[in-house]
Amino acid sequence: MNTRLVCGTVTYRQQSLERALEGIAKSGFRAIEVACISAYCEHIVPEAMSAGDMDRLAKLVERSGLCIASIAGHVDLGWPLMGKRADIEQMPKLPPGTDIAREGFVRLRSRIDLASHLGVEIVNTGIGVTSDQKEVERFYREFDALLGYAEKRKIKIGLESHAGLTETAVATLALCNKIGRPNLGLNYDAGNVRFYSGLDPVADLKSCEKELRDRIFHVHIKDHRGGKANWDFPPLGEGEVNFKELAAIFRRVGYRGPFSLEIQFHGPGTTDPTPEFIDEGIAASYRFMHNLGLED
Length: 296
Fold this sequence. Notes:
By secondary structure, the chain is α/β, with parallel strands linked by helices. The chain has a single domain, classed as Divalent-metal-dependent TIM barrel enzymes (TIM Barrel, Alpha-Beta Barrel), CATH 3.20.20. 39% of the residues lie in helices and 15% in strands. The chain is built from nine helices and nine strands. The protein has an eight-stranded parallel β-barrel with strand order 1-2-4-5-6-7-8-9, surrounded by seven helices. Strand 2 and strand 3 form a beta hairpin. Helix 1 crosses helix 9 and helix 3 runs parallel beside helix 4. The two termini are 14 Å apart.
C-alpha cells in the first residue's frame, strides 16, 4: 500500500471521521494522517481512548481501504494550534485552574501511546509560543523527558512549521540540535512557512539543505496564496508554493517519508465548504501529487 501519498483528515475538520475516510479513499489515497488537533479538529481524542477504542479505529480505517501513516497530534504544549495561547474559557473540556502547559504534555503522551499501539511511527505537533523565559526553560525540560518516553516506544516527533521556534526549517533544525534527541525532527509545511514568516520555503530549505537528511520525518503538502498571515490554503496548484522546486530538494536530501495533503479553506471559527466541494479539491490535489512524482 502506498503510504507516501497521504491525506490529512483535518481537511474535513467539520465532518465526521467516517465522512473524511470516504472522501479520501474515493480520491485515490490509500493512507491518512488522522487528526487529533486540540480545539481545532478532533476526529479522535486519544486521551479518552481505551485499547479497544484504538483497535476499533484501526478497523474502521482498514475497512475504508486505508491505513494510518501518521498522527496529527497537535497540542502545541501551551495551546492552541494557532501560535498564541488560549484563554481557559476556550477550552471547555478543561476545568478552571488547569495547568495548560502540563495538560499539553499529558495529551501529547496519549498520542504517543496511540501511535505505539497502532504501529504508527510519526506523531506531529507544534510547541506553542511564549515570551516567558521560565516557561521556555520548563518546556525544554519536559519536552526532553517526553522525547525519551517516545524514543523507548520507537516513535518520532515531527515539529510542524508554526509560529515561534519552528517558523522555518532553519529555526526548527536549531531547536532539534539544541535538544539533541534523534527522534525529534521536522514536519515541514511550506504553506505554513509562508503564512507565519512570509519567507519563501524553497529559499528556506536551500539555506539548510545539507543538514536536512536525518531531520525531515514528515512533510505537509499545503499550498498558500497571498502574503504573511493571509489565511488561504487552497487545493494544490491553485496557490503560490513552488512544489516542483520543493520536490527536487526532497529528492536531493533523500527524503522517503510521507507527503501529507492539507487543504484549509477557512480559518478557525468559520464554516468550511460542503464535503462534496472538499472531495473535488482532494481529488484534484491527489492528481497533482501523483503528477509531481512524489511517490518516486
